[in-house]
């Protein structure tokens, strides 16, 4: 069973000589929502990019179901793993549906148009992000929250069982942030996809994450189910502030307060 | 969409017939069409087929090649101001051409090797200067205005080299070399047309296969890579294609400036961002620009001829200014 899923083993990485990750090992369990949390510059984004083969580690290896990720051709890999980077960009005159269609690249051949499968996947992705009504508008006409959903929609259209997202709730108001994570949670529940998400908002993590990876200064501090990994002591240590849990009567999970 | 796709092509057809009619003696369009289909008088057919057709076709082919090169460059560096001339490829190719003429011609003003090698020399020249710009700009790709500055510097260097080579080289080649400085199609031969056609025919299936990866380059690098695009391979292939296209055009028509900048902008205004349509419309627009410029070049100061490249620059350079101002203000 050890070679199932997406595993990162003894990975180190440096940007232009500055080490960012030190001998990191992690396993993203299938069919779960894993949140990666930690202070700015702790290596969360780098870890996510390495897991999606968008960065090549200087040491160590990533495996997908036992196969070295580096050896999987880009299109085959993209059918397995989709990733939404932190600050994606596209010309804003592009229509929403055309953007979402770009997520189908790995499924298409060089010359043919969009297949029935492609159209279905695009429609389903637009629907689950509640953008069906905006399909034919240019990106420029969307609000911040809608723009973010359009990008998530493109990532979903890739129809990959693994969905990796780098701070998808950035720049979103509370309502849209919660709705975004609910959407990801639905992917896990209803479509049995595996979601790995870098989150800054500890309360979103506390409410929705099945598993949590806590990182600090290029190392993984804890990696387990939410209840096992996340403690007041650990959070206080990595964020260098006193952090405590609060409880609401009707909620199983705590909420998190930074003192 | 069909109308927007076909309108530039139909316009180009009309322009081509018009351009064939214009010359030292005006030939009415019905006689042009008749001669084209072998129904004209013997004189008309000689004028059309040996004098005017090669020129018209060369103008169209060179314009199409430069326009495609510009389209590819603008997409791969994601910079609307990029173009073969702005990034030094055109002048780099001219260095290759002038060096080739210097090295491989004899006292009698004839080439000692086949003219078929000329595009290769131009390609090597363009490639060297592309590599120079890429090397210097590698860190600043995210800042469009900087990349353009490096390109302009490289182009200036190439221009200076061409001037020095012409002055130092044999006098009898100077006149011919000057053509490449300004860009002209007035000395067009069927040979030139044939070679350029071959290059474009060979590249057409390659370009068609690149349409989808090019669409993917609308996304930023990270997103494009995550959707399964082989990023480095695609970028090298696209840059290589634009170098070859530029070099092929410059080999036979010289430094036609700003065609590669203008044509993709006009084409995008007509058909939007999708590569499938752009790969058809952009070359048509480029062909029309050079053909139109050549009509002006021949008629404005007749019987004197102006360099076609000077006309394209007169239109293109102010537009380039405007784009640059827009980009710098945005930074």
UniProtKB/TrEMBL annotation, chain A:
<comment type="similarity">
    <text>Belongs to the ABC transporter superfamily.</text>
</comment>
<dbReference type="Pfam" id="PF00005">
    <property type="entry name" value="ABC_tran"/>
</dbReference>
<dbReference type="InterPro" id="IPR051535">
    <property type="entry name" value="Siderophore_ABC-ATPase"/>
</dbReference>
<dbReference type="GO" id="GO:0005886">
    <property type="term" value="C:plasma membrane"/>
</dbReference>
<keyword id="KW-0406">Ion transport</keyword>
<dbReference type="GO" id="GO:0016887">
    <property type="term" value="F:ATP hydrolysis activity"/>
</dbReference>
<dbReference type="GO" id="GO:0005524">
    <property type="term" value="F:ATP binding"/>
</dbReference>
<keyword id="KW-0813">Transport</keyword>
<keyword id="KW-0547">Nucleotide-binding</keyword>
<dbReference type="InterPro" id="IPR003593">
    <property type="entry name" value="AAA+_ATPase"/>
</dbReference>
<dbReference type="InterPro" id="IPR017871">
    <property type="entry name" value="ABC_transporter-like_CS"/>
</dbReference>
<keyword id="KW-0067">ATP-binding</keyword>
<protein>
    <submittedName>
        <fullName>Iron complex transport system ATP-binding protein</fullName>
    </submittedName>
</protein>
<dbReference type="InterPro" id="IPR027417">
    <property type="entry name" value="P-loop_NTPase"/>
</dbReference>
<dbReference type="GO" id="GO:0006826">
    <property type="term" value="P:iron ion transport"/>
</dbReference>
<keyword id="KW-0472">Membrane</keyword>
<keyword id="KW-0410">Iron transport</keyword>
<keyword id="KW-1003">Cell membrane</keyword>
<keyword id="KW-0408">Iron</keyword>
<feature type="domain" description="ABC transporter">
    <location>
        <begin position="6"/>
        <end position="242"/>
    </location>
</feature>
<dbReference type="InterPro" id="IPR003439">
    <property type="entry name" value="ABC_transporter-like_ATP-bd"/>
</dbReference>
UniProtKB/TrEMBL annotation, chain B:
<dbReference type="InterPro" id="IPR000522">
    <property type="entry name" value="ABC_transptr_permease_BtuC"/>
</dbReference>
<feature type="transmembrane region" description="Helical">
    <location>
        <begin position="236"/>
        <end position="263"/>
    </location>
</feature>
<feature type="transmembrane region" description="Helical">
    <location>
        <begin position="117"/>
        <end position="138"/>
    </location>
</feature>
<dbReference type="Pfam" id="PF01032">
    <property type="entry name" value="FecCD"/>
</dbReference>
<keyword id="KW-0813">Transport</keyword>
<feature type="transmembrane region" description="Helical">
    <location>
        <begin position="304"/>
        <end position="325"/>
    </location>
</feature>
<dbReference type="InterPro" id="IPR037294">
    <property type="entry name" value="ABC_BtuC-like"/>
</dbReference>
<keyword id="KW-1133">Transmembrane helix</keyword>
<feature type="transmembrane region" description="Helical">
    <location>
        <begin position="275"/>
        <end position="297"/>
    </location>
</feature>
<feature type="transmembrane region" description="Helical">
    <location>
        <begin position="147"/>
        <end position="173"/>
    </location>
</feature>
<keyword id="KW-1003">Cell membrane</keyword>
<feature type="transmembrane region" description="Helical">
    <location>
        <begin position="54"/>
        <end position="73"/>
    </location>
</feature>
<dbReference type="GO" id="GO:0005886">
    <property type="term" value="C:plasma membrane"/>
</dbReference>
<protein>
    <submittedName>
        <fullName>Iron complex transport system permease protein</fullName>
    </submittedName>
</protein>
<dbReference type="GO" id="GO:0033214">
    <property type="term" value="P:siderophore-iron import into cell"/>
</dbReference>
<comment type="similarity">
    <text>Belongs to the binding-protein-dependent transport system permease family. FecCD subfamily.</text>
</comment>
<dbReference type="GO" id="GO:0022857">
    <property type="term" value="F:transmembrane transporter activity"/>
</dbReference>
<keyword id="KW-0812">Transmembrane</keyword>
<keyword id="KW-0472">Membrane</keyword>
<feature type="transmembrane region" description="Helical">
    <location>
        <begin position="85"/>
        <end position="105"/>
    </location>
</feature>
């Amino acid at each position: 069973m050890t070679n199932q899923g997406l595993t990162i083993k003894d990975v180190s990485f440096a940007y232009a000589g500055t080490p960012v990750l030190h001998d990191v090992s992690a396993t993203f369990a299938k069919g779960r929502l894993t949140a990666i949390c930690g202070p700015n510059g702790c290596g969360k984004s780098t870890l996510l990019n390495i897991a999606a083969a968008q960065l090549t580690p200087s040491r160590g290896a990533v495996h997908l179901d036992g196969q070295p990720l580096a050896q999987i051709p880009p299109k085959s890999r993209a059918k397995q793993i989709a990733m939404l980077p932190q600050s994606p960009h596209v010309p804003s005159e592009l229509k929403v549906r055309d953007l979402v269609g770009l997520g189908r690249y790995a499924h298409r051949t060089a010359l043919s148009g969009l297949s029935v499968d492609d159209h279905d996947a695009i429609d389903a992705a637009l629907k689950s992000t509640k953008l069906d009504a905006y399909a034919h508008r240019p990106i420029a006409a969307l609000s911040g929250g809608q723009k973010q959903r359009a990008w998530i929609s493109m990532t979903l259209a890739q129809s990959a069982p693994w969905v990796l997202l780098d701070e998808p709730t950035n720049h979103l108001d509370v309502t849209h942030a919660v709705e975004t994570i609910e959407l990801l949670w639905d992917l896990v529940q209803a479509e049995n996809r595996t979601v790995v998400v870098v989150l800054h908002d500890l309360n979103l993590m506390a409410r929705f994450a099945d598993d949590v990876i806590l990182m600090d200064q290029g190392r993984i501090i804890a990696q387990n189910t939410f209840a096992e990994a996340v403690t007041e002591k650990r959070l206080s240590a990595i964020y260098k502030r006193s952090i405590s849990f609060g409880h609401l009567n009707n909620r199983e999970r705590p909420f998190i307060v930074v003192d | 969409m069909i109308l927007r796709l076909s309108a530039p092509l139909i316009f180009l057809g009309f322009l081509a017939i018009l351009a064939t009619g214009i010359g030292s003696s005006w030939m009415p369009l019905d006689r042009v069409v008749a001669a084209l289909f072998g129904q004209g008088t013997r004189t008309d057919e000689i004028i059309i087929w040996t004098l005017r057709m090669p020129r018209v076709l060369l103008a169209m082919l060179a314009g199409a090649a430069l326009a495609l090169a510009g389209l590819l460059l603008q997409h791969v560096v994601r910079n609307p101001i990029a173009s073969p001339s702005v990034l030094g490829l055109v002048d780099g190719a001219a260095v290759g051409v002038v060096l080739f003429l210097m090295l491989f011609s004899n006292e009698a003003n004839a080439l000692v090797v086949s003219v078929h090698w000329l595009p290769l020399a131009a390609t090597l020249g363009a490639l060297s200067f592309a590599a120079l710009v890429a090397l210097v700009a590698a860190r600043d790709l995210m800042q469009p205005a900087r990349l353009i500055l490096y390109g302009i510097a490289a182009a200036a260097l190439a221009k200076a080299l061409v001037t020095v080579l012409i002055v130092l080289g044999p006098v009898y080649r100077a006149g011919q070399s000057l053509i490449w400085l300004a860009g002209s199609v007035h000395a067009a031969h069927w040979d030139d047309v044939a070679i350029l056609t071959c290059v474009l025919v060979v590249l057409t299936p390659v370009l068609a296969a690149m349409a989808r990866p090019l669409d993917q380059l609308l996304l930023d690098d990270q997103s494009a890579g995550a959707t399964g695009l082989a990023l480095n391979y695609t970028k090298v292939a696209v840059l290589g294609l634009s170098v070859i296209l530029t070099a092929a055009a410059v080999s036979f028509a010289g430094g036609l400036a700003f065609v590669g900048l203008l044509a993709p902008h006009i084409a995008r205004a007509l058909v939007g961002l999708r590569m499938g349509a752009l790969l058809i419309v952009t070359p048509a627009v480029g062909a029309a620009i050079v053909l139109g410029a050549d009509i002006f070049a021949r008629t404005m100061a007749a019987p004197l001829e102006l360099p076609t490249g000077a006309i394209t620059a007169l239109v293109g350079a102010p537009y380039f200014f405007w784009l640059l101002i827009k980009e710098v203000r945005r930074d």
